[in-house]
Amino acid sequence: MSCKIDYQARPDLLAGRVILVTGAGDGIGRAAALSYARHGATVILLGRTTAKLEATYDAIEAAGGPQPAIFPLNFEGATLKDYHDMAETLDKEFGRLDGILHNASLLGRLTPFEQYDPALWEQVMQVNINGPIWMTQALLPLLKAADDASVVFTSSSVGRKGRAFWGAYAVSKAATENFSELLADELENVSNIRVNTLNPGATRTQMRKTAYPAEDPQKLRTPDEIMPTYLWLMGLDSQGHSGERFDAQPPKS
Ligand SMILES: NC(=O)c1ccc[n+]([C@@H]2O[C@H](COP(=O)([O-])OP(=O)(O)OC[C@H]3O[C@@H](n4cnc5c(N)ncnc54)[C@H](OP(=O)(O)O)[C@@H]3O)[C@@H](O)[C@H]2O)c1
């Protein structure tokens, strides 16, 4: 596992690249969308709350970034047809896709497994792993149409080692790690698509606050501060890396 916290991205690192960011309306996804646009990418903003996506859109425009696109989609109710319609729309608009940051996730509830609500379990698995998997399948032809495409799945420390009370969230992140490795292995040598996972580490967002209500958020890095690895993975400097696990923050000493 490695971390690129000291990576310094060139201002034009992502110029001309078309990158889809899920959960782009809040937290880390919003910061990544803004950061990718600041480095020249045309960003497709996907999420479930249109007003939040519009706020990200406005912030990109105000900063003078390339005009983004908004794609409202809720992984909870989305169907295979939605993903294929999406691929058709993106094909017409851009003809290819240079990157996907799978970032949207639901925490669910921190509770002993004995009391875990099966309906909530299904919901978390749908949003965190099943939806993103089928969306990726539908978008593969567009990724293949790019000269170099990077797919990044967001993981978590509880996806690498299971931890009490983290329920479906932990299991969905473990599945994310495995799926990413499986896809990277299948695509190696037969495409220009690389697939990796990235664990942001403890970051000052609403999800973190919900998981750790007693923690002082000021002691955590902000989403903006963890962007170097997000940028490195999306640009050409990470070519040749696939099927690997990355951390956005150095391990605590
Ligand atoms: N923050 C941390 O300390 C931390 C640590 C390890 C891993 N992570 C991972 O980092 C990623 C970002 O987390 P975050 O902390 O930035 O969380 P966040 O602030 O809660 O943002 C999550 C994003 O996912 C979107 N989302 C949730 N359910 C969705 C659905 N059904 N369909 C489409 N979009 C949906 C949310 O949309 P709305 O805004 O509309 O709700 C929001 O934009 C997640 O994958 C998380 O598991 C975070």
Your description of this structure?
It is a single chain. With 253 residues, this protein is α/β, with parallel strands linked by helices. The chain has a single domain, classed as Rossmann fold (3-Layer(aba) Sandwich). Helix content is 42%, strand content 15%. The protein is built from 8 helices and 8 strands. It has helices spanning 27-38, 50-62, 80-93, 118-144, 157-160, 167-187, 206-211, 227-234; strands spanning 2-3, 18-22, 42-47, 69-72, 99-102, 149-154, 193-199, 245-247. It has an 8-stranded parallel β-sheet with strand order 1-8-7-6-5-2-3-4, sandwiched between helices. Helix 2 links the parallel strand 3 and strand 4. Helix 1 (27-38) runs parallel beside helix 2 (50-62), helix 1 (27-38) packs across helix 8 and helix 4 runs parallel beside helix 6 (167-187). The longest helix is centred in the middle third of the chain and has 27 residues, at 118-144. The relative contact order is 0.18. Bound molecules: NADP nicotinamide-adenine-dinucleotide phosphate. NADP nicotinamide-adenine-dinucleotide phosphate binds at residues 23, 25-29, 47-49, 52, 74-76, 103-106, 127, 154, 156, 200, 202-203, 205-208. It comes from Onishia taeanensis. InterPro entries: KR_dom, NAD(P)-bd_dom_sf, Sc_DH/Rdtase_CS, SDR_fam. GO terms for molecular function: oxidoreductase activity. This is NAD(P)-dependent dehydrogenase, short-chain alcohol dehydrogenase family. Belongs to the short-chain dehydrogenases/reductases (SDR) family.
